[in-house]
Amino acid sequence: MTVNGLPATFTRDGQELVITPRFGLLNHLPFVVAVTYDGSPETIVGSPVVFGAPYGWIYTDDGAFVGCEPNAASTWFPSDDHPSKKATFTYRITVPDDRAVMANGDLLGHWTSGDHATYVWNETSPMATYLATIDIGNWQIEQGRTPGGIPETAGLDPALADQASGIFALSGQITDYWSQVFGPYAFTSTGAIVDNVPDIGFSLETQTRPLYGFAAGSGTVSHELSHQWFGDSVSVADWSQIWLNEGFATFAAWLWTEHTGGPTTLQSATDGYDRRAATSPFWNQSIADPQRDTMFSSAVYNRGGMTLAMLRNKIGDADFFQLLQTWTRTHRNGNGTTAEFTALAEKIYGQDLDSFFTAWLWQKSKPALNS
Ligand SMILES: [Zn+2]
Q1: For the stretch 116-150, what's the b/e string if a residue is b when 16 or more beta carbons lie within 10 angstroms of its beta carbon?
Q2: With 0-12 CB in 10 A as exposed, 13-18 as middle and 19+ as buried, what is 198?
Q3: Residues 179-205: pLDDT tens digits?
Q4: Residues 318 and 244 in one domain
Q5: I need a surface site. Which of 69, 86, 88, 259 has the fewest CB within 10 A?
Q6: Structural domain that includes position 278
Q7: What is the Å distance from ligand 1's center to 227 Cα?
Q8: Ligand 1 centroid to 253 CA: how many Å?
Q9: Is the confidence at residue 53, as pLDDT, over 90?
Q10: Residue 370 lies in a domain
Q11: 204 C-alpha vs ligand 1 centroid, how far in Å?
């Protein structure tokens, strides 16, 4: 353990690592901390945050599937594990030479030495810790560019090579479309990591390259790739504002459906609204202030998506898409809050939207359709 190159003392208190530098740090000057550590990552199981499903470092039949939202990054690297604490990442990963590694960003190189192989991946854009992934296994790699010219790399578990064969083309089309409607793409590459872990059953918007535990279809791919704008580039300031991620990604999947000839976002939202009676527990939480055990609730996703579909209907397409593009531009590679989003919406619309946002985001009951 060193600070600015000098040995430092440390203690560990549960999840917290406390490092004491040899000399005091100077106000407002950068410093470098180097942490050397070893261990075997343990999967998080039984947490109420994700309904008891395993997450984090998950061992697979050929390696590992690593999906860390919200707090599993610190199970495999020391970090300030909070969505507001972004960093660039370089990984140097050594595995048995019959395995390969997929990760965020760009593959700088790989080589073999004896019976081991080393892969160096680099993510040059700031990234929140929960979006970091390194996935070890056998990968069938597809590389190229999206039709719009964004570099793209997909890695597929060979067991899913047929089932998921369309994901490279689909991911390219969707990344390009989101670049038009949400604003320029913030990262150096896009793609997919498709692993065969059907009993895990989740996907995650790992930065530049979403992680799928199965052969994902357009609903899932459009959701995860929209998070590259809403969640990854513009990250929540804290987890209580996660509707800014999941409501937006739910809306985005509806928007992809509309774009490809299906129901409009308003129809998708209205269907979900009509389907749920006012007495349904779905309506009795503030989606802008969920608790630990409701941050991944259906309401955060679906009422969040409805909020945006209803906002689009209320303020019209010109203001609505200007709002989304202004949001992604002004908070690019940073963080955003609900209060900043609603203030920007009012500024662009030019009228007060307090009663609308109170009804859709805060009130613990079913909003009126004309809110
Ligand atoms: Zn999501």
Answers
A1: ebebbbbbebbbbbbbbbbbbbbbbebeeebeeeb
A2: exposed
A3: 999 999 999 999 999 999 988 879 999
A4: yes
A5: 88
A6: 234-362
A7: 7
A8: 10
A9: no
A10: no
A11: 7
Same domain, 89 and 211: yes
- Token readout for 311 is 């906002």
- 3-state SS of 8-28 is CEEEEECCEEEEECCCCCCCC
Report the pLDDT value the prediction gives residue 48, as an integer from 0 to 100: 73
Q: Would you say how long the chain is, in residues?
A: 371
Distance 339 CA to ligand 1 centre (A): 21
Q: What is the CATH number of the domain that holds 121?
A: 3.30.2010.30
Plot region of 79 (φ>0 → left; ψ -120 to 50 → alpha; else → beta): beta
Q: For 273, phi and psi rounded to 5 degrees?
A: -65, -50
User: Is pLDDT above 90 for 322?
Assistant: yes
Give pLDDT, residue 37: 94
Q: What is the DSSP letter of 153?
A: E
Spatial separation of the C-alpha atoms in residues 273 and 269, rounded to whole Å: 6
The token pair at 284 is 């009795």
Pair (29, 143) in one structural domain: no
Q: Report the C-alpha dihedral over residues 109, 114, 116, 120, rounded to 10 degrees.
A: -20
pLDDT of residue 15: 86
226 alpha carbon – ligand 1 mean position (Å): 9
Total domains in the chain come to 3
Claim to verify: residue 201 and residue 75 sit in the same structural domain: yes
> CB neighbours (10 Å) of residue 40?
7
CA of 246 to the centre of ligand 1 (A): 5
Indicate whether 197 and 259 sit together in one domain.
no
Task: Determine the distance separating the centroid of ligand 1 and the alpha carbon of 236, expressed in angstroms.
Answer: 13
Alpha carbon of 6 to ligand 1 centroid (Å): 42
| Beta-carbon neighbours within 5 Å of ion ligand 1 | 246, 249
Instruction: Supply the pTM of this predicted model.
Output: 0.97
C-alpha closest to that of 170 among 276, 260, 43:
260
The pLDDT tens digits for 88-143 are 999 999 999 999 999 999 999 999 999 999 999 999 999 999 999 999 999 999 99
Q: How far is the CA of 58 from the centre of ligand 1 (A)?
A: 19
Q: With respect to residue 352, please indicate whether it lies within any of the assigned structural domains.
A: yes
Please check whether residues 284 and 310 belong to one and the same domain: yes
